[in-house]
Amino acid sequence: MEDRKIILKAENVIKQYKQYDTTVTAVNRANVEIYDGEMVAIIGSSGSGKSTFLHICAGLDRPNSGKIYIRGNDITAMTADELGVFRGNFMGMVFQNHNLIPQFTALENILIPTLMCNKPDHSYEEHFKKLVATLNIHDRLHHLPSELSGGQQQRVSIARALINRPQIVFADEPTGNLDRANADEVLELLIKTKEELGQTLLIVTHDMKIAERADRILVMDNGNLTPYKKKQ
What we know:
With 232 residues, this protein is of the alpha/beta class. It contains seven helices and ten strands. The strands form two sheets. It has a six-stranded mixed beta sheet, sandwiched between helices. It starts with 5 loop residues before the first strand and ends in a 5-residue tail after the last strand.
């Protein structure tokens, strides 16, 4: 890994919440370096802080202190507008609950990032066709999310995350609401598109079968992030 470029760096990231009269530390001085093209899985129990940390890395939440660097850029120092543009150009996000806009068709949901970044049609047309073919959703493009199965909705979510050819993709329990067969299929699609596009993938999961496909596994426990150690 030493000769590979660092694409994501977290430095002493702390995230705290007020809960009644108590301060809850969701992320406690988390540090990590993730390399270009690497697949890293974060595991941990429910409430351990892993999704909070992922959202901070993806620019969807702000830390109380600490820094997140993507491609050498400190995203914690960016304004909301600057961060929105940066995320649209370099980062993609796949959610557990799909987060599709219910009034939009699958096609419209997929193209939202291109519209937000003012991408000309020709810049993504061939990539769009390849994504649709890879994800096997060509016959579902004009359906609303309510007309799609959970697996199909997640495929649309993946296409939306990848349409702008992001260099790093964040996935928050992307198979959490799927049965085993669909979960395995979605994972294979994420890995396949990652390899074809040369992307970095940071995935939060509770599923060790998924985590073991990663190049590295990290463990989040009570806000602390440490390397995973296999039991002897």
